[in-house]
């Protein structure tokens, strides 16, 4: 029982990141209909447009993912 309580914050964080990823996956479609979203600060959302090509990403999400990956790799390396 204690083990499931220990992992609960990570589960909530994982679900939050999955939801955030799904939102960012849908952002190019949303941008076609609501172009005002591009006015958000570039640290929150970065939009690249070239003709009919849209590329939308979030630097914050990339930074969180890199920190998470680095944390995991350091944890695995210290176990050995």
What does the model show?
This protein is α+β, with helices and mostly antiparallel strands and 80 residues long. The chain has one domain. It has two helices and two strands, in the order αββα. The chain has a two-stranded antiparallel ribbon with strand order 1-2. Strand 1 and strand 2 form a beta hairpin. The chain is elongated.
Span between N and C termini?
A: 27 Å
Indicate the proportion of strand residues: 5-15%
Calculate Rg over CA atoms: 17 Å
Total number of helices: 2
Give the tags.
66% helix, alpha+beta, 80 residues, two-stranded antiparallel sheet, single chain, 2 strands, 2 helices
Brief overview:
The chain is 66% helix and 12% strand. It is of the alpha+beta class.
Can you lay out the helices and strands and say which pair or pack?
Layout (H helix, E strand, L loop, with lengths): L1 H32 L12 E5 L2 E5 L1 H21 L1
Antiparallel strand pairs: 1-2
């Amino acid at each position: 029982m204690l083990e499931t309580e220990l992992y609960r914050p990570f589960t909530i964080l994982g679900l939050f990141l999955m939801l955030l990823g799904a939102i960012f996956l849908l952002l190019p479609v949303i941008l076609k209909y609501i172009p005002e979203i591009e006015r958000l600060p570039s640290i929150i959302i970065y939009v690249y447009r070239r003709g009919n090509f849209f590329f939308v990403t979030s630097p914050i999400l990339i930074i969180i993912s890199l920190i998470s990956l680095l944390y995991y790799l350091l944890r695995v390396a210290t176990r050995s």
